[in-house]
Amino acid sequence: MTNGSFSRGSESCDTMGTQEVSRRSEWFMLKPEELARQGIDSALIAAGWVVQDAPAMNLYAGNGVAVREYPMSRGHGFADYLLFVDQRAIGAIEAKKRGTTLTGVEVQSGKYGEGLPAGVPAHHKPLPFLYESTGLETRFTNQLDPEPRSRSVFSFHRPETLARWVNRGKTGSAVLKQAAEESVPYTVDGSSSHRTLLRQGLQAMPPVVETGLWPAQIRAVRSLEESLKRDQPRSLVQMATGSGKTFTAITSIYRLIKYAGAERVVFLVDRANLGRQTLKEFQNYTTPDDGRKFTELYNVQLLQSNKIDPVARVVITTIQRLFSMLRGEELAPEDEEGSQFDTASQAASEPLPVPYNPYIPIETFDVIFTDECHRSIYNLWRQVLEYFDAYLIGLTATPSKQTFGFFNQNLVMEYNHQQAVIDRVNVDYDIYRIRTKISEGGSTVESGVHIDKRDRLTRTKRWELLEEEFSYDPNALDRTVVSMGQIRTIIREFRDKLFTEIFPGRNTVPKTLIFAKDDSHADDIVDVVRQEFGKGNDFCQKITYRTTGKKPEDLLQEFRTTFNPRIVVTVDMIATGTDIKPVEIVMFMRAVKSRNFFEQMKGRGVRVMNDTDFQQVTPDAKSKTHFVLIDCVGVTEQTMTDQPSMERNPTIGFEKLLNMVAVGNVDEDVLSSLAGRLARLDRQLGNPEREKLTQVAGGVTLREIAAGLLEATDLDRQVDAARLANGLSSDIDPTAEQIEDARWQLLRDAVKPLAANPELRSQIVQMKQSFEQTIDPISVDEVIDSGYSEAAREKAASVVRSFESYIEEHKDEITALQVLYNRPYGQRMTLKDIRDLAATIAAPPRSWTPDLLWHAYETLDKSKVRGSAERTLTNIVSLVRFATHQADELVPFPVHVQARFDAWMVQQEGLGRSFTPEQRQWLQDICDHVGGSLRIEWDDFDNAPFVQRGGLGKVHQLFGEGLEPLLDELNRVLVA
Q: Judging by beta carbons within 10 Å of its beta carbon (0-12, 13-18, 19+), is residue 24 exposed, middle or buried?
């Protein structure tokens, strides 16, 4: 960090040099006005300005010079700071003491902007760039904006930035004026995209090219641009999982760069694999007006180091890397692989401090897109987002109340799962519940038997004689107790009901995603799945952050695009963001407390997929019509909160606490909790383990670290430290600022043994995880109940009621319904009539498809439903007949036709009418055709499969003069 860093998060302004550190006590003795001036000076110096007093002014001392107490023209007093760039005035700063509210000070800084003395050269008159600052809080107004409005900024902009802006602002104003006079949209080609300021360019955006966009995406892009046009600093886009949020964002980014003049945009993710996935989407994005790929027009950088490419127009990075960069710290690659949502917690009540970094000034990005913005990262790290003077755009499928608040209630797009299902952007889902005795009530193992004890980390086992009766409840399952019988019972029930109830008529296991409690639990599930299905390693795979051999991303790609694996077991890695379209089953073998996280996990199954690609990975499926959520733990029946927390227990996980202090969190509640956990672990360890940790910690014991954490949070200790640091006697109370300074130093010193020693943190985690699990090989589990949930049945009943009411109400208006109700042979129903009926019922707001209706009837009463609707259009005939009680069973129309054909053939034999084998084959082909097309016509013999056997000429030869009455009879008998 260079001299002059500025930190709002810690409410301190210090130059971070050794001399300044030694003068901290003097700094706190200054008056509020002097404190403000020192803070402003430090911030200006850090941003590249040379700060001078007016009598000693030298405008050639640097590119940007800030002159204190500069005399303005008569009636305008003295400017607290007048800003010069390249020896010409460009802006002014009004300084106020700490605590002053700044929005009422804008009039004064505005006077400075207009009060430049005659003869003083300026880039623009009145001065375009005006600041108000207390040293802790700064507001900025750009007079070149279409509607100049002050906004809060983290610090001051660099001199070269203001020079660039003033030049772009002049040119942009002229271009916009010309565009307005000519009544044409303002556009800029790629070579001149720097010609206008962003806020100017947003006022004249060309219409959205709708090609390749879904209606919801078009609305989202337009609404977002309208919000930006109104200069709203934060905008929230809520779009259902699978509805193309990233594609929508890329469309907006392309337009912001090309037409609005955005210089650089950052796309924030919270896991490295999501960053790589986003990069691929940019690489595959074809620009709608140019036809080239996005990355052929603009440089897109996926940050893998702490250096931003100066020519990158889009930067993709994790928020943890950006945080580390601002703090001048290196980030290990593995720290980006896991979500920081997994290691952070809402228990920390203060945002993590971010210092000003002159190498990454606040104007580095014009726009920030933050993906999965419902997650708690902005709660802890909001200063990473607020550091930059940029528009902030949040993308999420599941916003919480906190999300709405953070984005100023500015929801520019709301597109939920139900709307996406209606628009066929998502598929709907049903809940299938599996309940077992041990899952709901635990079990008891009698004394006198041998049981296994397994090390959770190494998974090594040893035998132990159980001397006392051992009971456990469901909460202990797969944490301290493993019941292989419970896992096996669930998987066996899943296997047995898969092709009879869950996906009847199928014979290939649908792509299935199982959520486990932890890595060890995932291993157990994988082993049981392979055994119960009688399959090999490729059939079922574990994909977690601990997967070795193949990269998790490679395994995910195989899951997406190849036949195997059919079943994947994960913990959290695939819970959010990851796109796996072929998934038809999402199975919960772990509980979830957060509604937002549950919705994200559930969302892994909602994505639509075109039939061709889907059949490549699941050959016996016609299309992806819905997915099934299999609930094995009651996750769909429990009360959830809207808090954005993934915590599995009310308390914070041990590893999460360690990771929180590693990234700089010194919240006292966090440190107090961590001290208690470390003390508890120290009591559990043996002497060899304690000695090993002490050695790794450089001679400090775990107990000493815990004591240090606890002492640092003690108020008396903080007061004593403040007295010592400031040379005060015991009878003099330190100021609040001195206590805060001492408190901050104590907390930082207390966490240093952990925060600065990744190996120690790793060893602590390993030792914590190495405690044993009890393996229950005795208890036999059994299924209490399995089947579609009551909610699924209620939803199915609603669909059936609506469908049957609709048929009754419109039976005299729609041709197909008239025929099916009255069944007059003279009024023959055609395939066109069926198509018209299908289109009518599929139109919003009904959005009924044969698959959806079929599944609804099956959910209500499986005993009356055979087969599935697949994609055969004529199945609508079966649905209407069943709905109007003309049929006792719901069977696919081709099956109905085949049954009628078989009965007709038996009748013909009874009448003494026989057919040759060749004639029988032709008759069977006619039956198959009627099953899919409703009837057979003369022209049909010119198509497959008839034409391959000789077509109309051949069928005439085989049946002679009896062909016409034969076809007429079959059309009547088979469809009746």
A: middle
Q: What is the pLDDT of residue 821?
A: 57
- The answer to whether the pTM exceeds 0.90 is no
CB 229 within 8 A of CB 260: no
- pLDDT at position 1 over 70: no
**Element holding 248 (H helix, E strand):** helix 245-258
Which residues make up the CATH 3.40.50.300 domain(s) of the chain?
205-416, 428-631
Which tokens hold the place of 179? 């565009």
Q: 3-state DSSP call for residue 462?
A: strand
- AA letter at 682: D
> What is the three-class DSSP state of 330?
coil
Distances, alpha carbon 668 to alpha carbons 383, 522, 657, 745, 874, in Å: 19, 35, 12, 13, 68
Q: Classify strands 443-445 and 450-455 as parallel, antiparallel or unpaired.
A: unpaired
**Alpha-carbon distance 780 to 451, whole Å?**
14
What residues contact residue 181 under an 8 Å CB cut-off, 6+ apart?
none
Angstrom distance (rounded) from CA 829 to CA 800: 24
Q: How far is 526 from 532, CA to CA, in rounded Å?
A: 10
Domain 428-631 matching CATH 3.40.50.300: the answer reads yes
The set of residues, in sequence order, having a beta carbon less than 8 Å from that of 212 and lying 6+ positions away, is: 286, 288
Peptide bond before residue 565 is cis, with ω within 30 degrees of 0: yes
CATH no., domain 205-416: 3.40.50.300
pLDDT at 290 over 70: yes
Given a contact cutoff of 8 angstroms between Cβ atoms, the answer to whether 407 and 382 are in contact is no
The model's pLDDT over 618-664, given as tens digits with 9 standing for 90+, comes to 999 888 888 999 999 888 887 665 543 322 222 456 777 888 888 88
Interatomic CA distance for residues 565 and 555, integer angstroms: 9
Residue 874 in contact with residue 932, Cβ under 8 Å? Answer: yes
* Peptide bond between residue 644 and the one before it cis (omega within 30 degrees of 0): no
Closest CA to 238 of 380, 367, 419, 376: 419
473-497 pLDDT, tens digit per residue, is 887 776 778 888 999 999 999 999 9
* CA quadruple 884, 886, 888, 893: dihedral sign: negative
Q: Which two tokens stand for residue 316?
A: 């993709």
Residue 406 pLDDT > 80? yes
CATH dotted code for 6-167:
3.90.1570.30
End-to-end Cα separation, the chain, in angstroms:
85
